[in-house]
Amino acid sequence: MGQSTGEKLHKLSKSCKSMAQVRQILAQIIQANASSDQTSTVANLLSYSATSPDGDLQFASAIFSNMGNLSSFTHNAMIKGFVNGGFPRDALKVYNSMVSGESASPDKFTYTFIFKACALIAEPETGKTIHGKTIKVGLSTDPFIGSGMMNMYSQFAHINSARKLFDEMPSRDIVLWNTMIGGYVKCGRIEPAYLLFEQMPSKNIASYNAILGGLVKEGSLAIARTLFDEMPDRDTISWNTMIGCYARHGSAIEAWELLQLMPERKISTWSALVSGFAQSSRFDEALDGFREMTEDCCHGRASQAALVSAISSCAKLGSLQLGLWLHCYIIRREKRIVIDDFLGASLINMYCKCGFLQGALSLFHSLQMRGVCSWTAMIHGLALHGESDGALAMFDEMERAKVRPNAVTFVALLLACSHGGQARQGREILSRMESVYGLCPKVEHYACMVDLLSRAGMMEEAGRVVNCMPVEADEVIRGAVFSGLAGGYLSHDVMMVGLMDGGMDVLESNVCAAEGRWEAVERVRRRMVESGVRKIPGGSMIEVEDRVHEFLAGETAHPMVKEIYLMLDYVYREMKARG
Q: What is the spatial distance between Cα 282 and Cα 548, in angstroms, rounded to a whole number?
């Protein structure tokens, strides 16, 4: 191979734009049998394959395995690729090959990436051992490495170790200050984070955003807003943090006002608004936000996060028409919006919650990407509709498709068994969860099992499950026990396991009333008054012209409340007149 050709290939290897180019350059090197002369060129190709968003980690691994002269650069590229690709243990294997003396020695870039790997696998001892290595080679006080170690210790929640490192640094740049503040925030230590923020010799947007995120996390909205207003500069993260915070706390007026003040509204900002409203159960506001987003500067585009939040809001409201509109919105943009497993599961859940089971089934069978989320959503939907046999058959299909279930899948299955009164199948499923899939049952699984047994009248067995389960009974378990007990047996057993709370008082009162034991009803209600328990009012919803109206017992907040009560009075009089 001529020198000019080699130089040309080396230049091309430094400016690759795709894996196709990588393969073409590598093919020319192999064809000319000049791989030994083109080590740096091959290293560049490996780096692109391992670290580029459009790369191919498996292809990079193949190059790495066949390279003869491995440098720190190639090792670092593989370590970074494995860490970013979610394979931290493979990154540690590459690092271990370096320290064993088989190839090049680690440098400061190696340690930065490997500390990220340690944080991902949550092995503090491994991290401490590598920290010790940096001390031996004199790199522990390097700000670049120090930032990586501080971040690692913060991930382990060893915030005091991170602070010790920070204090021991001979010189601290703004990155180290921000890392330490971010570590405190990550561990929920907002007060020391704020004190450190105030001590900073100089601050940048990242400094403000770190402490702003901490104040929002703590729920200190007023202080966060004051800091936000004092910021010399704001970026999209600053605006998103504040707007999303107001939306999550149900402060709709403040959220909308701040959105209007934003110089340029981004898709991520709209997503923060929509998701925040959905999280605070302001589902109408979430859907309004989604509509406005599609009409604003986003040119009809929407993020998956906003779509999932909007679809979830439709499910909560039971608004099938709006749910269908959202599904059509996605279909019309099929080239830009892919219905993956998570988005598919959201749509399935929405159709099931809105009573359109056939629509959910049709969508499920049309999905190109069916993972654990969509399978679980469909099983849960069948269970909600009382199709327990269908839910169990769907699980059989899931196993045949070799899709591994998760803990949520088993909650859905036990719910199906409970609705179908299938105690034997419920026992088998709970057993298989641990014996076949190695999943440890949690309180929600035991609650479903207790509910299943209680509904079937197997109270003794339900009691044994409550007494023997390795987790503490919570309100879900209490409700399951209550639903299966009656009469005097009810109060005795409830008191025995300490399951009294407001919701349980209401349920006991209802059971006593159903049996005509009015003295017991009066006694329970008197106890509720004395302990300050208030019954949550019942409610209903109706959808009119793509708008869901919610009514609570005794409320007068609806803008047309007078007209509604006049109509109800008219209907009542007409019914009475006609017998």
A: 12
Determine the Cα–Cα distance for residues 139 and 146; give it in Å rounded to an integer. 9
Q: Find the range with the poorest average confidence among 24-28, 72-76, 89-93, 232-236.
A: 24-28
C-alpha to C-alpha distances, 172 to 140, 143, 146, 318, nearest whole angstrom: 13, 7, 10, 55
Kindly report the length of the chain.
579
Give pairs for 520-529: CB < 8 Å, separation 24+. 528/502
Could you state, in order of their start, the residue ranges of all structural domains in the chain? 541-577
Cβ neighbourhood burial of 528 (10 Å; 0-12, 13-18, 19+): middle
DSSP state of 535: P
Asked if 422 contacts 398 with a C-beta cutoff of 8 angstroms, the reply is no
Structure tokens at 29: 């090197």
* Residue 297 pLDDT exceeds 80: no
- Residue 544's φ and ψ, nearest 5 degrees, are -130, 120
Q: Are 268 and 240 in contact (CB under 8 A)?
A: yes
> Torsion over CA of 439, 443, 448 and 451, rounded to 10 degrees?
150
C-alpha 429/C-alpha 376 separation (Å) is 14
Q: Which candidate, 411, 421, 425, 417, places its Cα nearest to that of 455?
A: 421
Residue type, 216: V
The string of pLDDT tens digits covering residues 115-155 is 999 999 888 999 999 999 999 989 989 999 999 999 999 99
Helical spans, DSSP H, in 86-235: 88-99, 108-121, 124-136, 143-155, 159-168, 174-186, 190-199, 205-218, 221-230
Element (H, E) at 541: strand 539-544
Q: Which amino acid is at 204?
A: N
CB 90 within 8 A of CB 82: yes
Contact 404, 376 (CB under 8 A): no
Q: Put residue 542 in one of left, alpha, beta given phi > 0 → left and psi -120 to 50 → alpha.
A: beta
Q: pLDDT tens digits, residue range 430-439?
A: 999 999 999 9
Enclosing H/E stretch for 543:
strand 539-544
- Tabulate helix, strand, coil % of the chain (nearest 5): 70, 0, 30
**CA distance linking residue 131 with residue 352, whole number of Å:** 52
Using alpha carbons only, give the angle 106, 140, 107 rounded to the nearest 5 degrees. Answer: 15
Phi, psi of 35 (to 5 degrees): -60, -35
Q: Which residues contact 220 (CB under 8 A, 6 or more apart)?
A: 190
Whether the CB-CB separation of 76 and 48 falls below 8 Å is answered with: no
Judged by phi (left if over 0) then psi (alpha if -120 to 50, else beta), residue 18 lies in: beta
Q: Are 288 and 258 in contact (CB under 8 A)?
A: no
Residue 487 has pLDDT above 50, yes or no: no
Confirm if 66 and 36 have CB atoms less than 8 A apart: no
> From the CB of residue 254, how many other CB atoms can be counted at a distance below 10 Å?
17
Write phi, then psi, for 74 (nearest 5 degrees).
-70, -40
* Strand partners for 539: 552
- What share of the chain in percent tops pLDDT 70? 81
DSSP conformation class of 81: H
Measured distance CA(92)–CA(72) in Å, rounded? 14
- pTM of the prediction? 0.73
**H helix runs in 231-319, sequence order:** 236-248, 252-261, 267-279, 283-295, 304-317
